[in-house]
Amino acid sequence: MATAAELAAVTGLEVAYDARLRETFAGEWQGLTHEEILARFGEQYTAWKRGEAVRRGGGELETEVAERAAPVVLDHADKLPDGGTLVVVSHGGTIRTTIGRLLGLDPYTWESLGGLSNCCWSVLGEGARGWRLQEHNAGTLPEPVLGDDD
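and the corresponding structure tokens:
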């Protein structure tokens, strides 16, 4: 919410807050260091890293995060005027899973999108067959990409 507030201050635009864009709830993993998670939940962590559907610490599945966050993006995108831009601010895990869902990727492959560094962003746009990932984990303003698909 703090990042969205900073963007609003720079742009003068209003922020619409939606709790469905919150970070993944990781149950008993919440607040633990990486080392503590490995020590207390090693098997669960290993299964999660293999791509298995794991409720980390009894929390949310990645698919559940995408199921709550993607509709927020779709709803706001549907309300945009032609040529409009929607900025969605959230946490890295929520952003990655939402992008995976919007692109129609198999949840097993969402990890291949990689993490999102602090203060970086991803850019999605309209493609000929749905959403298209134009930039990911970017730190500079997007430039148009010339391709053979108009």
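(Above: one complete record from the training split.) Strands lie at 121-127, 130-138.
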